[in-house]
Structures are given as structure tokens and as C-alpha cells.
């Protein structure tokens, strides 16, 4: 089934001097897909990810999520939509240094409920901490963790509200190749076990090539869209 569909999405920045970051992008992403986006610096990858994540609005075009037009929602409705459906992972994990691992994973619950997380949510957070493999660090602060462990915590946090789609911008950008492989394997495990759809922007061709589908962007246009699905299914 279709999860995200972009029709003629265009994004221009600036008023006087305009930069066309995306030029009539058409793209459909299916539920359960694991997709990577590659392209040179400045090609439009982050802009595309931000628009699919509703963090930024297109200048023109339509964005559909499970068939609903979400590009027309107002800011409050969009924030609500994001909280209920999307997870985000960034290159720099954006963990809060004064909070423990468990508290960091619970951040989305505070945003949603604006009150103390329930026992059910705390159990869910603990399950996710086990899933990502940092259960021996539950009460530690981020600066007591390795880079890979911090990214694992950020991944657990992105999953708290059970999103159907996780958008990741250079999730392994700050890690050495072993840690990158481990993070990739973790995302794959989540993709298989929770059927979470992943869209990852990456410079790492080794990681990008392992995705079900690889999209290359150049000057705001999709110049390549390669499916590795059959290969993935054989494994
Ligand atoms: P990538 O993620 O592939 O490096 P970006 O999406 O960040 O590419 O940028 C695409 C183009 O849009 C670039 O020319 C960049 O300079 C421009 N751009 C990105 N963000 C802004 C912004 N906030 N204001 C103006 N121009 C921007
Ligand atoms: P992972 O493989 O779990 O994702 P990394 O590969 O990023 O973690 O770990 C990088 C290195 O940091 C490893 O050799 C790991 O043993 C070490 N390390 C583990 N825990 C800590 C810590 N609390 N502080 C500093 N380094 C750590």
C-alpha cells in the first residue's frame, strides 16, 4: 500500500534570489519499504526529507500520507500528525544531556500528553531500550555513552509513538564504519519486526546500497530510482 506520495513537489527558497531546491518531484513510497536517498551536497536531499516529514512546506505540489492530503493541514494539525505518525533520527542525535537514557526515550510522550508518562508508556520505552540494545545504560546520561549507543537511544526515542514512518538524516554520519553497520542492522531489524518504513539520507554508499530502494537526487530532481527488493528477498 502507498504510504507517502509526492506529486509535482517543488520547493523554492528565498524571495529575491530564488533557489529551486526541488523541481517537480514525483515519488511514491510503499508501506514497509526501506529506502535510501543519495546525492551530492546541495542536491536537495534534506529538503526532500524535511518536506516528507512535514517539517517544511513545499512551494507547490501535493503530499499524501496513506492517501490523505496533508500538505493542506494547518500548523497545529501537522504537529499532531507528526507526533502520531512519524519518527525522526538525525546525524547529531539531539539527546538532552541532563536527562537519562530512559527520560530521553520518553521525550515524545511529554510532547504528546503534556503530563507525566503513564506506566504503559514507560514500559514501552523500556522495551524499545531493550530492542536497540542499550538496556545496560537505562539510567546513564548521554555523555556516558558511545556514539553508537547514543544513536541507538535516538532511534528508540523515534519509535516511542509507534510511527509508521521514520525519517533519518545521515543516521550514521558521525560513526565509524563498524558502528555504522551496527546501526544499519538495527534499522533493518526494526523495519522487519515492526514493519516500520524507513527513509534514510546518507553519504555512505555502502549503507545506501543495502536499502530495498535507492533514489539519487541531482539538482532537485530524481535522476535514479533503483529497486533492490528482489535481492533483499533472496537473502
Ligand atoms: P542536501 O541535503 O542534498 O545537501 P539541501 O536540501 O540542503 O541539499 O539543499 C538544496 C538546495 O537548497 C541547496 O542549493 C541549498 O543551498 C538550498 N537551501 C537549503 N536550505 C535552504 C534555506 N533554508 N534557505 C535557502 N536555501 C536553502
Ligand atoms: P555500538 O557498536 O554499540 O553501536 P560504537 O561502535 O559506537 O557502539 O562504540 C564505539 C566504541 O566505544 C566501542 O569500542 C565501545 O566499546 C566503546 N564504548 C562503549 N561504551 C562506551 C562509553 N560509555 N564511553 C565511551 N566509549 C564506549
From TrEMBL:
GO molecular function, one term: transmembrane transporter activity
GO cellular component: membrane protein complex; plasma membrane
InterPro entries with a match to the protein in the record: AAA+_ATPase (IPR003593), ABC_transporter-like_ATP-bd (IPR003439), ABC_transporter-like_CS (IPR017871), ABC_transpr_LolD-like (IPR015854), MacB-like_ATP-bd (IPR017911), P-loop_NTPase (IPR027417)
SMART domains on file: AAA (SM00382)
Keywords: ATP-binding, Nucleotide-binding, Transport
Residue intervals of the ABC transporter domain: 4-235
PANTHER family with a match to the protein in the record: IMPORT ATP-BINDING PROTEIN, LIPOPROTEIN-RELEASING SYSTEM ATP-BINDING PROTEIN LOLD
Entry similarity comment: Belongs to the ABC transporter superfamily.
Record's protein name: ABC transporter ATP-binding protein
Organism: Alkaliphilus pronyensis
Amino acid at each position: 500500500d502507498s504510504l507517502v506520495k509526492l506529486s509535482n513537489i517543488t520547493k523554492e527558497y528565498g524571495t529575491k534570489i530564488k533557489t529551486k531546491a526541488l523541481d517537480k518531484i514525483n515519488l511514491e513510497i510503499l508501506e514497509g519499504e526501506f529506502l535510501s536517498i543519495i546525492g551530492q551536497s546541495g542536491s536537495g536531499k534534506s529538503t526532500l526529507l524535511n518536506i516528507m516529514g512535514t517539517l517544511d512546506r513545499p512551494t507547490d505540489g501535493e503530499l499524501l500520507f496513506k492517501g490523505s492530503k496533508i500538505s493542506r493541514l494547518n500548523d497545529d494539525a501537522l504537529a499532531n500528525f507528526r507526533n502520531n505518525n512519524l519518527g525522526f533520527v538525525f546525524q547529531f542525535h539531539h539527546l538532552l544531556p541532563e536527562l537519562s537514557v530512559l527520560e530521553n526515550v520518553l521525550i515524545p510522550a511529554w510532547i504528546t500528553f503534556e503530563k507525566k508518562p503513564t506506566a504503559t508508556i514507560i514500559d514501552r520505552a523500556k522495551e524499545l531500550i531493550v530492542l536497540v540494545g542499550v538496556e545496560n545504560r537505562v539510567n546513564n546520561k548521554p555523555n556516558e555513552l558511545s556514539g553508537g549507543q547514543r544513536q541507538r537511544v535516538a532511534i528508540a526515542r523515534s519509535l516511542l509513538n509507534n510511527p509508521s514512518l521514520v525519517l533519518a538524516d545521515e543516521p550514521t554520519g558521525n560513526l565509524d564504519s563498524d558502528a555504522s553497520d551496527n546501526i544499519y542492522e538495527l534499522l533493518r531489524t526494526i523495519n522487519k519486526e515492526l514493519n516500520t518504513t524507513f527513509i534514510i539520507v546518507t553519504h555512505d554508499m555502502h549503507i545506501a546500497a543495502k536499502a530495498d530502494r535507492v533514489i539519487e537526487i541531482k539538482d532537485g530532481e530524481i535522476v535514479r530510482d533503483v529497486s533492490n527488493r528482489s535481492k533483499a528477498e533472496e537473502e
